[in-house]
Amino acid sequence: MIFTGLSVGSGLIIFLTLALVAIFLTVRSLPAIRDSREFGGGADAVSLWEFTAPLVFGTVFAAVLALVMAVPVSIGIALFISHFAPRRLATPLGFMIDLLAAVPSVVFGLWGGVWLVPKMQGLYELLNTYLGWIPLFAGPEPEPPMRNLATASIVLAVMILPIITAVSREVFLQTPRLQEEAALALGATRWETIRTVVLPFGRAGVVSASMLGLGRALGETMAVLMVLSPGSSFSLHILEVGQHNTIAANIASQSAEATPDVMARLIFTGLVLFIITFIINALARAIVARSARA
């Protein structure tokens, strides 16, 4: 009875915490909503759409780019550790991946701002010259420093890579051994076994790992703040400087000196980020449940 009560209470604490956070964000953002141009404010009132929409665009754009770069690499590393590397190499490599996930974000921000930004100049010039017909790499010739969305996305990809790798590795290790041996006995190669047995078995786990990484990328603050030159546009040109910003980085940069009106708008953007994260996690759970039923 005691154990049951403690278990149920611990579970309810999670829902209570989420509810309190949602209530706090909603109540503190009400002044910004009430005084906005869209909800009854005057013609000279601040538009919440114009204030929030570019930040939402930059946040989602950077996170999706990071996910696109990180997921294939993470799956490859996880497969190498779980099915290809000898045990003497797989064990320390797994420890290194786990340790990389514990590195503070400010360290990634320092690495990106001090080392990565100068190194990307040549690559960005090549992309702009030869692939400028693609909207992502179009625009004027990149000029240093390379504090653009592309660099921020690379830093985010490095940050979420160990999370996705660690979870995917554990999922791949849970693949039933008998199924792998049966595929090999039927004449399948190692890659065919992975493609037909391991990857289908681990699909739901990879989706969950990707959503965990996406959640961190959406909410990352310090690394983006230290690497990205802020802007406020809907530009698809990731090589241009001063075009994008994220919700978390914007809150961190403006909250210290914000007036009550500005703080209310910042809290409103935090509420939007909270809703986006909640929706993404709900979609991930639906995808995982559907994969499990299949």
From TrEMBL:
The record ties this protein, via InterPro entries, to:
MetI-like, MetI-like_sf, Phosphate_PstC, Phosphate_Transport_Permease
BP-aspect Gene Ontology terms: phosphate ion transport
A GO CC annotation given for this chain: plasma membrane
Q: Which residues form the ABC transmembrane type-1 domain?
A: 56-284
Q: Where in the cell is it found?
A: Cell membrane
| Residue stretches spanning the membrane | 53-81, 93-117, 149-167, 262-284
Name the domain of life this protein comes from.
Answer: Bacteria
- Membrane topology of the entry: Multi-pass membrane protein
Keyword line: Cell membrane, Membrane, Phosphate transport, Transmembrane, Transmembrane helix, Transport
Ion transport: present as a keyword of the record? Answer: no
Name one molecular function that GO assigns to this entry. Answer: phosphate transmembrane transporter activity
Function in brief:
Part of the binding-protein-dependent transport system for phosphate; probably responsible for the translocation of the substrate across the membrane.
Q: Member of which family? A: Belongs to the binding-protein-dependent transport system permease family. CysTW subfamily.
Question: By what name is this protein known?
Answer: Phosphate transport system permease protein
What is the organism field in this record? Brachybacterium endophyticum
